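Incident log, support desk, overnight shift.

02:14 A customer reports that sequence design results differ from what the structure should imply. Their input is reproduced verbatim below. On-call engineer (initials T.W.) acknowledged and began investigating.
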């Protein structure tokens, strides 16, 4: 096969099979010339490349870290959320995979069209609600008869949590997530056609002793306008031209007004600790530098200039005469 390197033993075995008639050289040539056929399921269209799936995974890894921080602060208990998989499947397949009774949060993400679905396993949802109500975080699955108060508490919690997706997506597009709907039965929720391709990001979630999954379902129609931006090539390219002028100008202006310490040294010397302890008011310390010698001016801790002392408007000053030659600080 092209590109495949055979070992000497494999070559000897192949030659032996050809010589004994176990293999036919003409048959091997015929197999190589035959067209390779790849099975493609039109009902399960793959509309995202592996590169784009990896980009979506990275985005939601950041989102999962933000959710971990948010829920840890809100619930004041151990919370761990991480991405376990990112798959593209038909919407109908996703709906069949979720429980018949679960927590479904629907969001709009303008300026993108369409809606995003966040499905939360009831074990996780009830553990969150129990913690917010002052409990230990126990999980009781009774989704089919949620009260209005329970519905309101859950929807408010997930609405605030989903706001962090704005920060996770900020490198790709600025979105403004809006909470749209709360549902418990996936059969009553028809966001797109059954055969529409969706990306499902599964987040493994642990809250206290409860564990379960949070699934984020993003239809292809939502991502279609920004698909080119999901490639690593786009992230690596210098499309920074659109944002470079403003960012570089801001960076330069901030650096220019930053304050740094400048020290002019009159000289230095070494004395013993005993002499240091015996120093008193009026004592004179002899420096290792003559009064006519130039002074070293340090920027931070780096020797940068050579100067001479003087006065300006009755104030002590130092005039810069030259740069320090050699060393790490030269012309930096």
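02:41 Re-run completed on a clean worker. Output:
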């Amino acid at each position: 096969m092209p590109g495949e390197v055979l070992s000497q033993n494999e070559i000897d075995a192949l030659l032996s099979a050809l010589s004994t008639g176990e293999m036919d050289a003409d048959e091997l040539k015929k197999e190589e010339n035959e067209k390779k056929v790849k099975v493609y399921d039109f009902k399960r269209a793959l509309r995202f490349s592996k590169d784009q799936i990896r980009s979506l995974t990275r985005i939601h890894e950041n989102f999962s870290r933000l959710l971990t921080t948010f829920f840890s602060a809100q619930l004041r208990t151990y919370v761990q959320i991480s991405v376990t998989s990112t798959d593209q499947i038909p919407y109908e397949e996703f709906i069949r995979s979720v429980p018949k009774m679960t927590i479904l949060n629907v969001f709009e993400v303008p300026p993108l069209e369409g809606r995003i679905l966040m499905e939360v396993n009831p074990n996780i949802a009830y553990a969150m609600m129990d913690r917010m109500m002052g409990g230990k975080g126990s999980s009781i699955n009774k989704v089919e008869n949620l009260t209005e108060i329970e519905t309101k508490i859950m929807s408010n919690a997930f609405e605030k949590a989903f706001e962090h997706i704005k920060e996770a997506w900020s490198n790709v597009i600025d979105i403004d997530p809006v909470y749209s709907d709360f549902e418990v039965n996936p059969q009553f929720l028809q966001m797109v056609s059954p055969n529409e391709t969706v990306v499902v990001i599964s987040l493994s979630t642990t809250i206290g002793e409860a564990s379960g999954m949070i699934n984020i379902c993003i239809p292809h129609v939502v991502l279609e306008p920004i698909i080119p931006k999901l490639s690593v090539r786009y992230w690596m390219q210098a499309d920074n031209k659109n944002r470079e002028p403003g960012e570089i100008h801001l960076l330069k202006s901030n650096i220019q007004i930053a304050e740094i310490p400048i020290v002019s040294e009159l000289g230095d010397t070494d004395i013993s600790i005993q002499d240091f302890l015996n120093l008193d008011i009026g004592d004179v310390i002899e420096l290792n530098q003559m009064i006519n010698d130039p002074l070293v001016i340090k920027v931070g801790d780096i020797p940068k200039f050579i100067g001479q002392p003087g006065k300006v408007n009755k104030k002590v000053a130092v005039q810069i005469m030259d740069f320090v030659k050699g060393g790490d600080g030269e012309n930096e």
